[in-house]
Amino acid sequence: MNDPEKKILNGIFLDNQKVNDAVYYKASELNWLIENKLHKGNQWRDENGNFKSCECKENEEEHYFCQLGILMDRIEKPLSYLNGKGFITSTRDNDSFHISITASGADVARKLQTRIGRIDLWYQTNKDSVIWLLITIITSAVVTIITSLIIEHLR
Questions:
Q1: Which domain holds residue 149?
Q2: 146 and 98: one domain?
Q3: Burial zone of 103 (CB within 10 Å; 0-12 exposed, 13-18 middle, 19+ buried)
Q4: Rounded Cα–Cα distance for residues 102 and 43 (Å)
Q5: 120 lies in the same domain as 107
Q6: Which of 46, 87, 103, 141 has a CB 3.0–4.6 Å from the CB of 82, allowing a cystine?
Q7: Residues 52, 121: one domain?
Q8: Is this prediction's pTM over 0.90?
Q9: Cβ pair 63, 43 in contact under 8 A
Q10: Phi, psi (5° rounding) for residue 98?
């Protein structure tokens, strides 16, 4: 799971912690989550209770890209991944998304809120990789060396 997907899942969970309870979000509101850091997801609503949004700037180039639908593309890719993994259910209306978080999505979002939880998620996705094989080999070598040094010292 990459950063935009984590940010969207965390923001949706922080906004509505009820499983399978759908809420409408505009693309610009979801874009605010992508543009800000993960830990700012709890600041998504302003003091009036409205969602903060990240509209395109008024300069001509960015306005042109918004007209092409890049903003919707930028939002749809993470939502498609989250929907495919079963973390959310989402449907798209014209310029908004009807999103509800699933039980497995809520579990992942809870883990995203703590450092140890993020480490656990990282470990779960990388535990079968070469890195962990090397870490296991290095750890066993270090333990073997320390054990042999202790035994030699006790003799």
A1: 115-154
A2: no
A3: exposed
A4: 22
A5: no
A6: 87
A7: no
A8: no
A9: no
A10: -100, 105
